[in-house]
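pipeline stage [seq->struct] | target=Release factor glutamine methyltransferase | organism=Gammaproteobacteria bacterium LSUCC0057 | residues=276
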Amino acid sequence: MAVNSIGAQLAAAQLPGDSAALDAQILLAELLQVSRTYLATWPERELTAVQVAHYQRWLARRRSGEPVAYIVGHQGFWSLQLACAPSTLIPRPETELVVEQALELALEPTAAVLDLGCGTGAIALALASERQRWQIVAVERDAAAVQLAERNRRHCATGCVQVVQSDWFAALGERRFDLIVSNPPYIEAGDNHLAEGDVAFEPRSALVAGADGLADLRHIIRCAPQHLQRGGWLLVEHGYNQAAAVAGLFEAAGFAAVSGRRDLNGVPRTTIGRWQ
C-alpha cells in the first residue's frame, strides 16, 4: 500500500474520541469530494502531496477539538445540507424533533410560521422543504448568522422563507403567526459542558441564557401570545433537565394543551402549548 494511499492516510489519522474513525473518513471524503463508500472501495488510490498536506492540516484542526462541521463548512440536517460557520450553532439531530412535531400539527396549507433564533436556518428551511406553501419568517439577532441563514435559504431555493434580523420579536411589529418554533440558548452560564467537545467552539451567545439557562425561554414564552393567532402553537426545544420548569412557564403564561416529548435518546427535549 502506497504511503500516500487512502488506506494509509486513514490508518495514520489518529484522531481522539469515540468518533475518530468516522471523523477521519468524513474529512478525507470531503477533501476528495467522494463518498465514504468510495474510501472503502478504493483504499489503494494514491493522494497527491498537496492533498496529503491539506488533509493533515484538517486533522490538526480536528485534534485541537474544532468541530468537523466547521472544518468542512457544512452539516446535514433533515434532508438538507446546510452551510455552517462559527457564528452559529451546528445543527444537531435532536433538533429534528422540533421539525417532526411542527409537521404533525393540523395547520392551514398557507400557515404563518415564525422560527425564533434561526441560526443556520435549519428548522425554518426543513419545514419549508416539507410545506412549500407555509409562509415562514426566520429571525436571528446576530448579523453574521443572518447572512449565513440567507445563504442557506438561497441554496435551498425556497421562496417561502424570509430571513429577518431581529432581537427575538423586536422587529416583527404586530405580526401574528399560527406557529412559533424556537431552539433558543438554554445552557446555564456556569455549566461545565461549555468547555467540552464541539460546544467549546460554538458562540456563547447561542448557548448561554442566564444563571439558570431559562432567561431566553422566559422571554419567548411571555411574549409569544402577543404574536400568536388564537389557537396558535408555541413549540420550543430546551435542556434535558428543564422540562418541568418550561411546562410551568407555559401554563403560567396561559397556554393550554401543554405537553413535552423525548428525543431518540429518551431525553426530555421539547415542550409545546396552544394559545387560547
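stage status: PASS
auto-comment: The beta strands are 74-77, 80-83, 112-116, 135-140, 161-165, 177-182, 228-237, 255-262, 268-275. The longest strand covers residues 228-237.
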